[in-house]
Amino acid sequence: MLEGKKVLVTGGAGFLGCDLVGKLIEKGALVIVLDNLFRGKMTNLQEYLDNPNLTFIEGDVCLESDLLKCESIHSGLDIIFHLAAINGTKWFHEKARDVIENNIVGTLRTLESAQRCNARYVLASSPEAFGESKQQPLSDGNPMVFSNPAMHQRHSYGASKYLDEVATQHAIRDGLDARIVRPFNAYGPKLLGDEYGQVVAIFFQSILENEAITLHGDGSQTRSFTWIDDVTDGFIKAASDKAQSGDVFNIGSQQEVSIAQLQKMIFSIVSEDVNWFGGLPMVIMGEGYHGDSARRLPDISNNIKIDWEAKVSLNQGLQQMWDSIRSN
Ligand SMILES: NC(=O)c1ccc[n+]([C@@H]2O[C@H](COP(=O)([O-])OP(=O)(O)OC[C@H]3O[C@@H](n4cnc5c(N)ncnc54)[C@H](O)[C@@H]3O)[C@@H](O)[C@H]2O)c1
């Protein structure tokens, strides 16, 4: 289905994007990556850079001129996976204005590109599009709830994803073959563990640097961590058929764990190698981010249409991530 297809992956140098790019290349697609390297890295694409089926364009997804460049490489596009966005919770608070502009304008420009090329479109949305919705599991039709922006600006991200979904649904109404994918807390070896990174990688990095691990609040907030390979399989399945146009797929594991449980699972995995990194760090309770959701559990009932559910358990994935850290 992907052999010879002209596929644009925006944000393809990022954590999810580079894994998706690898799979698309393996399936014979002609892949173009558009990434401004704000958070993505060329090293993420290292193993494919010599592959003639990959073209990397350093550019901005908000600029029509950069998208036109991508469209001209193979004279048109068959599929656009739109992943470029400012992601990372610390950025949502620190750079709310940029998050809003980047994420919304990037989606509008890529939707226009898909319309120009008559390409199939896959939007990477987020469970954060539900804001602070208490109703779980997160299902289509649940309210999407955003709090007073005078309190905090975290929802620059979730609300931008909400508007991305609005724009995508509007384009579907106008005839575009598009669908929405919401990944739930993806993790894997290339996840960023710096202060702008995400929790699983931050915990591993703190262990390696013997720095205290901070649990936000009492660590009782839960997440549905989903292994990278499962997530990118979900993206590809979601793009496999025109019949999926208009569908929304929550790509998330059903294994719900609290952040405190996650920390204990990680400690149990790494403790066998305690001599290698020199001892487990302290665990402290600290203040969390405003607007953080208490739970994020996906309703995956719609995924029957694409035969998707998470295959890798959290314990298996954490072990694989640790093995990869140890071997590098
Ligand atoms: N990782 C997750 O668990 C998760 C969960 C929900 C949603 N998502 C969404 O999936 C997508 C990919 O997430 P990720 O974890 O790989 O994040 P990431 O930050 O690793 O990747 C995003 C990429 O987009 C690039 N980018 C940002 N702005 C750009 C611009 N204006 N022009 C070109 N490139 C730009 C960045 O440099 C980066 O390489 C994002 O849209 C994110 O919001 C991810």
CATH superfamily: NAD(P)-binding Rossmann-like Domain
- Do you know the CATH architecture? 3-Layer(aba) Sandwich
Average pLDDT reading: 95
From the alpha carbons, calculate the radius of gyration and give it in angstroms: 19 Å
Summed up, the helix count is 10
The major sheet is characterized as: 7 strands, parallel
Note the run of SSEs as H and E.
EHEEHEHHEHEEHEEEHEEHHEH
Shape, per Cα inertia axes: globular
Number of strands: 13
Task: Report what the structure shows.
With 328 residues, the protein is α/β, with parallel strands linked by helices. It has one domain (6-257, 288-323): 3-Layer(aba) Sandwich (Rossmann fold). Helices cover 37% and strands 16% of the residues. The chain has 10 helices and 13 strands. The protein has helices spanning 15-26, 64-73, 89-94, 96-117, 155-173, 199-208, 228-238, 259-270, 274-277, 314-327, and strands at 6-10, 30-35, 54-58, 79-82, 120-124, 178-183, 186-187, 213-216, 222-223, 226-227, 248-251, 257-258, 283-286. It has a 7-stranded parallel sheet with strand order 3-2-1-4-5-6-11, with helices on both faces. A two-stranded parallel ribbon has the order 7-10. Helix 5 links the parallel strand 5 and strand 6 (178-183). Helix 4 packs parallel to helix 5 (155-173) and helix 6 crosses helix 8. It is globular and about 55 Å long. The two termini are 35 Å apart. The model has no long low-confidence stretch (mean pLDDT 95). The structure holds nicotinamide-adenine-dinucleotide. The site of nicotinamide-adenine-dinucleotide has 29 residues, from helix 1, strand 2 and helix 4.
